[in-house]
Design a protein that fits this description.
By secondary structure, the chain is of the alpha/beta class. Among the domains are: 81 residues, no CATH class; 218 residues, Rossmann fold, CATH 3.40.50; 106 residues, no CATH class. Helices cover 65% and strands 9% of the residues. The protein has a six-stranded mixed β-sheet, sandwiched between helices. Helix 17 runs antiparallel to helix 19.
């Protein structure tokens, strides 16, 4: 047996090894996942119906099918058959010029090598034609006779060079004659393809062509070289490069003579083409291909018999059988785990209490307990088990003779039992919750890994899109849009993958969110069923306590206890699952958060119009939110400023209130002083009426008293004048300080003012002495009032913070000093005052 394409056998062996490696990796991963799913102790129970032998057979069938496919592709052959083969075609002689002029390098690499390459291209297109070679220069030589052996023809073509014929020159007529000799033993259509530069040194080529045309020979000519010509390079005896020279020692320039070649072709019914990129192709398509073909020979050929059908059929059968074989065992031993236990429990609950409850209470009557009993039976039949239990309880309360107590307890047990069955029907098998935390964590981690790989691919495409858009920025906005539109990120298949990845992320998130809720709900259903079942057992025990021979109660009590045992087992599994899920909740939550971040990044890579509009809407909403936040901040600032203004207004109002209070206090004090003065004046008048003293003594005493009081009044008046002129003097002093007036001038002005005041005081004193006693007393009273007013004004000035004249002078002296500080009584050291953080400089 032989194989026509043995390379497929090696490829098949490599494919078989690859399949075995994949099987090995899949088996290791399967075992790893099983270890994550359940402990080694529970695996045999969980996989009790899995058949390793059938699983191995499935893999073996697939591997054998693959191997037989590659064997069929290798085309096995054994046995032979004989077959007659006939060939049809034409006879073609390639007459190739091998003169020295063919060494010119006006075509690459030179004329002769270029002609040989053109012939090789044409031979590759021929099918079933006989071909031969005639080489010529000064004379012609049959290099390769007509043959169907193209390999031998190629060897003869490669052997051509300019030294194959010793005689130089270009004798086209000899080449045509030699080609006719090669055609002598055939009756097929005769064709010559003449390849030369056309520099015929003999003038008989055209006449020879006309003679061949009469004998049915067609000549197609192919010109090699350039019309401008090129010198002919050769090597001398010492290998030195030189050029062919004529008898006068001049270098010979060889040119393409298209005229001669064109005349030869037309004379025989052919045509001329220059040797260009498609010159030989035109000769084949327009000339050789259109020549009628004739049957050239017929012979018996031994052919191998193909046997690929056999391995191909075997491969098809094996690959078709592989999916038909399952992995479950043919016979599985009954067990008590998983869904089987759940179905058994449901069946047990469904088969309990098969007797009709109404049959136990049909002989009712009109007694209240019988009526309540039968109402409970009706509610039971309507599946209102809570209402039925209430009615049976009422019947027990009303039955003082204990006649229907056993039946009532029995039917209460039946109601609780049916309620337990309904609650348990809502629960899922506890085995589904084993290792739920690991499965959810593995699912989220796997989904996150797949989504992360997709995200990396998308980010790479996004970078390419951004680079394309940046390159197109200089070409205008339309170019940028076109670059973005043609981005590979917008590929439909990739966008579908993105959507699938997002859907998988959302599904994994939902699974993680629903897992713990599902466990809790399942646990609640089991707990409800357990409570109802315990109540049913309690009612059955009560029925048997009253009637120990109650057969139906005994039978169903055993069933209820068995169901309770199974329910406790389910509860333990669910509790463990919930506890494990709670322990792993941190890792699951972290994985889900990572999954959410990846999902959001994947959504950013979506490029459908709806997603783009959504992104634009989100950006607009974000801008509106930012604007609202800015407006809220501005409003808060305005409110703060308004509040600050209100606080200042309140402070100013408080200052005004303090000033008004001070003024009121001063007025009250002045009023009290006036009252005291009036009392004093009244006493003086009484003394004057008594006449205890002489008028002269009284005048002297009064003058002395008036003088002292006048001096006091004058001092008080001067103080009042100083208080009234404090602000004016202060402004004047500041103005003087600003204008730079000398301090001596100010002192002079002050001395003048002092002299004027002394003169005024003297005049006032003399007027007081000359005035009558009553006038003097009145003046004294007014002076006392002025004194009180001056003290009140001084207090008001201090409360308002106004400076006196002396303080103003102190201020001017301080401003002219180097330290520029304000010594002000009551504020401590001036420098420390500015250093205090609470000091306000306005």
């Amino acid at each position: 047996m032989n194989f026509f394409s043995k390379e497929w056998l090696y490829i098949g062996a490599a494919a078989a090894i690859a399949v075995l490696a994949v099987y090995r990796l899949a088996s290791l991963k399967r075992r790893k996942l099983l270890k994550q799913f359940a402990s080694a102790r529970l695996l045999p129970q969980l996989a009790g119906n899995f058949s390793e032998a059938k699983f191995f057979v499935k893999r073996a069938l697939f591997l054998a099918g693959v191997i037989f496919v590659f064997i069929a592709m290798a085309r096995p052959q054994w046995g032979y058959r004989w077959e007659e083969t006939k060939t049809r075609g034409i006879d073609i002689i390639f007459a190739i010029d091998t003169s020295k002029s063919m060494l010119a390098e006006d075509v690459t690499p030179n004329r002769l090598e270029r002609a040989k390459l053109a012939v090789m291209d044409l031979v590759n297109a021929l099918k079933g034609d006989k071909i031969g070679i005639v080489a010529f220069s000064g004379q012609a030589f049959l290099q390769c006779p007509l043959t169907l052996d193209y390999d031998a023809f190629r060897l003869s073509l490669d052997a051509l060079d300019t030294d194959i014929i010793k005689r130089g020159g270009t004798n086209i007529a000899a080449a045509i004659a030699e080609s006719e000799v090669a055609f002598a033993d055939t009756s097929n259509k005769k064709t010559i393809v003449l390849i030369s530069d056309g520099e015929e040194l003999e003038a008989s080529a055209l006449a020879k062509a006309e003679e061949c045309a009469k004998r049915g020979v067609t000549i197609y000519t192919l010109g090699v070289g350039g019309v401008k010509g090129r010198q002919i390079p050769i090597r001398d005896a010492r290998g030195k490069l030189t050029y062919v020279k004529d008898e006068f020692g001049n270098a010979v320039t060889s040119k393409l003579n298209e005229e001669v070649l064109e005349k030869i072709a037309k004379a025989t019914g052919g045509f001329y083409e220059p040797l260009s990129a498609n010159g030989m192709d035109l000769i084949y398509e327009e000339g050789l291909k259109k020549i009628p073909q004739h049957e050239m020979s017929a012979r018996m050929k031994q052919l191998a018999i193909e046997r690929f059908q056999i391995p191909l059929l075997i491969a098809i059968i094996l690959l078709a059988l592989e999916p038909l074989i399952g992995t479950r065992k043919f016979f599985v031993r009954a067990g008590f785990g998983g869904k089987a236990a759940l179905l058994a429990l449901v069946a047990a609950l469904s088969s309990a209490f098969p007797e009709d409850a109404r049959a136990d209470g049909a002989d009712g009557g009109d007694a209240p307990e019988r009526k309540a009993f039968n109402e409970g039976v009706d509610a039971y039949e309507k599946r209102d088990f809570v209402g039925a239990k209430e009615k049976f309880t009422e019947a027990i309360r009303l039955d003082e003779e204990l006649k229907i107590h056993p039946k009532s307890f029995y039917n209460m047990a039946a109601s609780d039992y049916r309620a337990a069955r309904d609650a348990f029907a809502k629960a899922r098998p506890a085995s589904e919750f084993k290792n739920l935390d690991r499965r959810i964590l593995a699912q989220t981690v796997q989904t996150a890994q797949n989504s992360a790989a997709l995200l990396r691919e998308g980010l790479d495409l996004l970078k390419r899109e951004q680079d394309a858009a940046k390159q197109a920025e200089g070409k205008g906005e339309e170019a940028v849009k076109a670059a973005i539109q043609n981005s590979p990120l917008r590929d439909k298949q990739f966008q579908e993958r993105l959507k699938q990845g997002i859907s998988q992320c959302e599904a994994a998130e939902k699974s993680a969110d629903d897992a713990q809720k599902s466990v809790s709900e399942n646990l609640g259903a089991i707990a409800a069923a357990t409570a109802s079942l315990e109540s049913s057992i309690k009612s059955l025990n009560s029925a048997l306590a009253i009637d120990p021979d109650y057969a139906k109660a005994k039978k169903n009590l055993a069933t209820a206890k068995s169901a309770q045992k199974n329910l406790n087992s389910e509860t333990d599994i669910l509790q463990n699952a919930l506890s494990a899920f709670t322990d792993q909740n941190g890792d699951v939550r972290a994985s889900v958060e990572n999954l959410k971040k990846i999902k959001e990044e994947l959504k950013k890579l979506l490029r459908d119009d709806q997603n783009q509009n959504q992104q634009n809407q989100n950006q607009q909403n974000q801008q509106n939110q930012d604007q609202q936040n800015q407006n809220q901040q501005n409003q808060d600032q305005n409110q703060q400023q308004n509040q600050s203004g209100q606080n200042q207004s309140q402070e100013q109002q408080q200052d005004r209130q303090n000033q008004n209070q001070a003024q009121q206090q001063n007025q009250q004090q002045n009023q009290q002083d006036r009252q005291q003065q009036d009392q004093q004046s009244q006493q003086d008048k009484e003394q004057n009426k008594d006449g205890q003293k002489t008028d002269s003594e009284k005048g002297k005493d009064n003058q002395k008293q008036d003088a002292s009081k006048g001096s006091d009044n004058r001092e008080q008046k001067s103080d009042a004048d100083s208080r009234q002129n404090d602000n004016g003097d202060q402004n004047k002093d500041e103005q003087a300080a600003d204008t730079g007036a000398p301090r001596d001038e100010k002192n002079a002005d002050n001395s003048k003012d002092e002299k004027a005041r002394q003169g005024e005081e003297g005049r006032e004193r003399r007027e007081e002495q000359a005035a009558p006693a009553d006038n003097r007393q009145l003046r004294q009273a007014e002076a006392g009032t002025e004194d009180k007013d001056g003290k009140a004004g001084e207090n008001y000035r201090k409360a308002a913070g106004a400076m006196s004249r002396a303080e103003a002078r102190q201020l001017l002296d301080a401003l002219k000093a180097d330290e520029k500080s304000l010594p002000h009584s009551g504020f401590g050291e001036q420098r420390r005052r500015y250093e205090e953080k609470t000091y306000k400089d306005w």
